[in-house]
What does this fold into?
Amino acid sequence: MSQHSATTAAPLSRFLELGRLATLSHLRFAPRFRIEGAYSGRHPSRRQGGAGEFADYREYTDGEDLRRLDWKVLGRSGRAYVRLYQDETNLVGMLAIDCSGSMRFGERSAGRAAMARAATSGRRADGKLEHAQFLATAFGHVIAQGQDQVGLALLDERLQTFIPPGGTGSHLSRVNSAIEQIETKPISRMAEALRELFQRVARCGVLILISDFLQDDVGDVFNALRLFRRRRWEVVALHLVHPDEEQLPTGVAYRFEGLENDGVIISSPAEVAQRYEQRFKEHLSATRTLALSAGCDYQLVPTGIDYLETVRKFLVARSG
It folds into this structure.
């Protein structure tokens, strides 16, 4: 599979900005840990043996293939040692997107605060779902550009969509199409969906979970992610936050409507603003703590920042 076919065969999704993504062409998606793969590639593997770069020696044990003996060491020392090699392998990148109703937040925001931010920054904050779609499409493009494999999981109250990892142009097209056509569900049981995903994936790789983590029991979500970590998956938790979630708008009275069958409240922001902001900060802190304790790579992702900048910083941080 050529790099050209993997990245250009996919039809253009509105979230696939090839001109802008070209600025990332010198960067590659690198895992932080050694991975497992099915065929030779460019990433370090945990599996030892084969014809890769020499890694270490260990003592020979009875019954092993004599062809693996290092005869020069045996001749010099009289002790039998086997040479271990560091194989190179391909990467599996599994994109997992939260499709709960709260991810729709910000998709119609046009208040004065949002307009003021647009005037100063040159752009408005994306809705959380739209930002997730841009991020996932960009990561898929970068992973495929490196001749690695991309899979997709859409999560709501169950595993809504599962596309096993693949690396062809037609496969990437299928992934992009599914990302573009995401529909949210009012109720989310992301922990259950992640457990179902865990049962469906065979090989280890990197799981990139894009979510706002607004779950009734966010601790259960990270318990599910621990299953991946125990199987030696690398887990990246991208925590999306819309600027309008961090502070309530100013005004006399507003109508607050839940996106997950939460009902409607009519209230003055002044009455609840301080308590709301405290609770939201607690949510951010608790999510970060849970992610790190589960062994995940946690990153807070404000939707007011260009998604391309988030991807670039992520790739640069791993390139060193």
Notes: Residues 25 and 88 are 22 Å apart (CA to CA). The beta strands are 43-59, 81-89, 92-98, 149-155, 159-166, 206-211, 234-241, 254-257, 264-267, 297-302. Residues 1-10, 37-41, 45-51, 109-122 have pLDDT under 50 and may be disordered. Residues 269-293 form the longest helix (25 residues).
